[in-house]
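F.,

This is the one I mentioned.
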């Protein structure tokens, strides 16, 4: 019997698949195997197919960043403490031995065409935050 996944659990599985296979290697067959959902069920949740699923993964990454990094930056720490905390958090989240960082996954192959501008905007925003901390 297959386990039913809520949308958040499904997106969590998608995050893992994209990390493991990259955008180009993430096929509907791989996603179906990882989630236990058939292709029709996947399209029910994500009518836009693989691109919509990948967009959900990026949105999940954004929410995680707001929750963890946003909270750190909004706190009462010194600029140096915020910068150290930021680097520590980034190192922790990007130390997956078997794959590139999630942001890098979206800058290679076909993903670059689709998600390149969004990733560029995220990187620029992150650099602006770091520059602001360094100027304090």
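My design for it:
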């Amino acid at each position: 019997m297959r386990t039913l996944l809520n949308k958040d659990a499904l997106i969590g599985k998608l995050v893992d698949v994209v990390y493991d296979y990259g955008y180009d290697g993430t096929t509907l067959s791989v996603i179906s195997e990882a989630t236990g959902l058939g292709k029709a069920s996947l399209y029910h949740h994500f009518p836009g197919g693989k691109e919509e699923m990948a967009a959900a993964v990026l949105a999940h990454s954004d929410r995680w960043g707001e929750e963890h990094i946003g909270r750190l930056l909004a706190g009462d720490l010194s600029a140096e403490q915020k910068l150290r905390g930021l680097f520590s958090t980034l190192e922790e989240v990007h130390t997956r031995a078997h794959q590139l960082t999630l942001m890098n996954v979206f800058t290679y192959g076909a993903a670059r065409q689709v998600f390149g501008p969004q990733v560029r905007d995220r990187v620029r925003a992150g650099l602006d935050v770091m520059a602001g901390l360094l100027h304090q």
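The mean pLDDT is 85.

Talk soon.
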